[in-house]
Amino acid sequence: MKKIGFEWQEENLPSFDKFNNNTNKRLMFLKLFNENQKCNNKFTKNDFYYCKNFNLFELFLKKIFFNLQCSYVYSKAVKIDIQKTLLIKDFFLKLQEKNDLKFNKYSIFIESKNSFDISIYFIKTLLDNKFSLYLDAEKTFQNFVSNKIMKQQFDREVKIYDDSIDLIYKERTLQTKIFTFWEFINSNRLDINSHIKKAINCINNTEFKQVYLVYPKSDNFNKHIKVQCSDMIIDDEYEIKLIPYSLRSILR
């Protein structure tokens, strides 16, 4: 599953490690979603509380309604941006068609421009994706790992690229290259030849002689595995490791 998310009321989320119930899986999605969001657009602890009783689509609707401060009782119109007003109207019409909801009369009370802009952002997100939203799991996992690394206090330089994370140490001979993979591997039945070849190519052709292949931690993969392939590597000093990376911090 290279993409995770929802399409209307249907959720497509993996089950692994501690993420084996709907509440935790939804929490995982929302916190991974937060990784790439501006502070104002992030889901909050109050939002997370509802993961138990509402699916992802409903949680996004709640975010919109709360920030619009929407009621279904008619009141005087509020002067707001015309384009944004039309966008809101379009959203409610499409939502009504999709869900058989009745929004013939509603009012919007805007106490904060910031709250209004948050709602507009989420409305556009749902409309642009036809009431679905999927995260690229590969990119999202790499972003999660890189953010964790950046928060650690070590004497090193961290460089983040599209497909790797480099750790440059001033006082070490072995520099580290990290490749992340959103793949649930089984330590007893490894099928990652292309990943191993990528590590070997890196060691043979770059200054990075320590390569970590990082995967989500799961019941089938929960310990480091050292890979030996001296017959395919030029250098005498090298290291290839398979690393199980836990996402449990999401649940804290």
Structure description:
With 252 residues, the protein is an alpha+beta fold. The protein folds into two domains: 134 residues, no CATH class; 98 residues, 3-Layer(aba) Sandwich (Trna Endonuclease, Chain: A, domain 1). Helices cover 37% and strands 21% of the residues. The protein contains seven helices and eleven strands. A six-stranded mixed beta sheet has the order 6-7-8-9-11-10. Helix 3 packs antiparallel against helix 5. The longest helix is centred in the middle third of the chain and has 18 residues. It is elongated, with a radius of gyration of 23 Å. About 3% of the residues have low confidence.
How many structural units, i.e. domains? Answer: 2
Largest sheet: number of strands, sense, barrel closure: 6 strands, mixed
Number of helical regions: 7
Radius of gyration, rounded? 23 Å
* First and last CA, distance: 25 Å
